[in-house]
Specification:
Layout lengths: L2 E3 L2 E4 L3 H12 L4 E4 L16 E4 L1 H9 L3 H5 L4 E3 L1 E6 L6 E4 L9 E5 H13 L4 E4 L4 E6 L4 E5 L4 E4 L1 E4 L6 H5 L4 E17 L6 E7 L2 E7 L5 E8 H9 L2 H11 L7 E17 L3 E2 L2 E3 L5 E2 L7 H21 L7 H29 L4 H16 L1 H12 L12
Parallel strand pairs: 1-12, 2-3, 2-13, 3-9, 6-15, 13-20
Antiparallel strand pairs: 4-8, 5-8, 6-7, 10-11, 11-12, 14-17, 14-18, 15-16, 16-17, 18-21, 19-20
Helix pairs in contact: 1-4, 1-8, 8-9
The chain binds flavin-adenine dinucleotide.
Keywords: FAD, Flavoprotein, Monooxygenase, Oxidoreductase
InterPro entries: FAD-bd (IPR002938), FAD/NAD-bd_sf (IPR036188), Ubi_Hdrlase_CS (IPR018168), UbiH/COQ6 (IPR010971), UbiH/COQ6_monooxygenase (IPR051205)
Family: Belongs to the UbiH/COQ6 family.
Length: 402
């Protein structure tokens, strides 16, 4: 069977892999995306329990790639404030979009919808070939090229192999890139809940000793939840009847929206932290969860992945403009230097939050209440937090700039 030649081969057609494919195609690269799974399509009649809080920065990236209109045109839930409080009785802190002159802090969007919109966007680009669903049979990286053999016998040859294949990345393993990994000993329980009171477009997070509970507002008035709980507690919660779970949710949320009257689509995901020691190897780059997995408590995981993709597009396009090999090791290292520090900082911040909030130690309780109180009173601290939340930070790639 003839070998298909392309500039870049991306393994993994999830949210980050598709973003990278569209961005690279727009700067003139040819791209092959290999995705093992036929993704479940977005369902208008049913809100999925897997959602992401999309920052302004990510919205801009999706918009420039022609995917955002298809998202807001179908179902996106804007939120204008975030309220965080803990179980020790402190009123907590509220961040408003208006603190930074914005109408919204972000949008809650179903992952299936983001993926559908990106697949449509990729489908409009002649430079991208999507191989899906098909598994990879063999990978080979040489000095000047990489080759991929697919399970159906097709062969691809390109200048760069990108791992956008998630936390258990096959590409990362193939390249022999080690990871630092830590199991949080928690699971994230997701579900869609109905409450007595409307959420008022506010995202809420209550820090419980067992882990944070996030109530993410949906446009239909319900909330999507992520309840991070220690494994034993998560097992208990998973075993509850719907009625018992609603009662447990009402108590855990301090009935902030009144009683939880219904919950559907409960599921649990193990939570771990993972960081690749390098994002690149000769002819190989990692993006998204293949490079870093962070605690979902600040809803930043895929947002960091979108920035990885946009940064890789920038460094490769700039190298080619200067007549250099866009997949040369020096170019790839520029990408790694750009993104690894930023992601590590966010990951460490999440670990700090996790340490400070996920326990009932009285000293840490004092510390966090003091911190929340000071933050709530200090406008610069709030503005800084809002900047972080909406994604206005650091050195942004061109797809993400205002
Ligand atoms: C409970 C929970 C809540 C979260 N909430 C948020 C949030 O609010 N905001 C946020 O930003 N992030 C959130 N995240 C994190 C976010 O879901 C991930 O960061 C994001 O899905 C990573 O996207 P990705 O494309 O890098 O990887 P993935 O979504 O893992 O996609 C990888 C793709 O590669 C494919 N693949 C894997 N192996 C192969 C192979 N060998 N060959 C071909 N294809 C392959 C897979 O089928 C998949 O389609 C949350 C995570 C959890 C667990």
């Amino acid at each position: 069977m003839a070998e298909q030649r392309t500039d870049v081969i991306i393994i993994g057609g999830g949210m980050v892999g598709l973003t990278l494919a569209a961005g690279l195609a727009d700067t003139g690269f040819t791209v092959a995306v290999v995705e093992a799974r036929q993704p479940p399509p977005w369902d208008e009649a049913h809100t999925s329990n897997r959602v992401s809080a999309i920052t302004h920065t990510s919205r801009r990236i999706l918009d420039r790639l022609g995917a955002w209109d298809a998202i807001v045109g179908r179902r996106a839930s804007p939120f204008e404030a975030i309220r965080a409080w803990d179980a020790a009785g402190h009123p907590g802190v509220t961040f408003h979009a208006a603190d930074r002159g914005e109408a919204w802090l972000g949008h809650i969007v179903e992952n299936t919808l983001i993926q559908d919109a990106l697949r449509e966007a990729v489908g409009r680009r002649a430079g991208v070939a999507l191989y899906c669903p098909v598994a990879v049979d063999d990978l080979h990286t040489g000095d000047d090229a990489v080759t991929v053999r697919l399970e159906d016998g097709r062969r691809l040859r390109g200048g760069l192999l990108v791992g956008a294949d998630g936390a258990s990345s096959m590409v990362r393993e193939h390249a022999g890139i080690p990871v630092r990994e830590r199991d949080y000993g928690q699971r994230g329980i997701v579900a869609t809940i109905t409450t007595e009171q409307h959420h008022g477009a506010v995202a809420r997070q209550r820090f419980l000793p067992e882990g944070p509970l996030a109530l993410l507002p949906l446009v239909d008035g319900r909330c999507s939840i992520v309840w991070s709980a220690e494994n034993a507690r998560a097992t208990e919660l998973q075993a509850l009847s719907d009625k018992e779970f609603n009662t447990a949710m009402t108590a855990a949320s301090e009935a902030v929206l009144g009683q939880v009257t219904a919950s559907v689509d409960r599921a649990a995901f193990p939570l771990r932290r993972l960081h690749a020691e390098s994002y690149v190897a000769p002819r190989v780059a990692l993006v998204g969860d293949a490079a870093h997995v962070i605690h979902p408590l600040a809803g930043q995981g895929v947002n960091l992945g979108f920035l990885d993709a946009a940064a890789l597009v920038d460094v490769m396009a700039a190298a080619r403009e200067r007549g250099r090999d866009p997949a040369g090791y020096g170019v790839l290292r520029r990408y790694a230097r750009w993104r690894r520090g930023d992601n590590l900082l966010m990951q460490s911040a999440m670990d700090g939050f996790h340490w400070l909030f996920s326990n009932d130690d009285p000293w840490r309780s004092l510390l966090r209440n003091a911190g929340l109180g000071v933050t709530d009173r200090l406008s610069p601290a709030k503005a800084l937090f809002v900047d972080q939340a909406v994604g206005h930070r650091g050195d942004l790639p061109s797809l993400a700039c205002r």
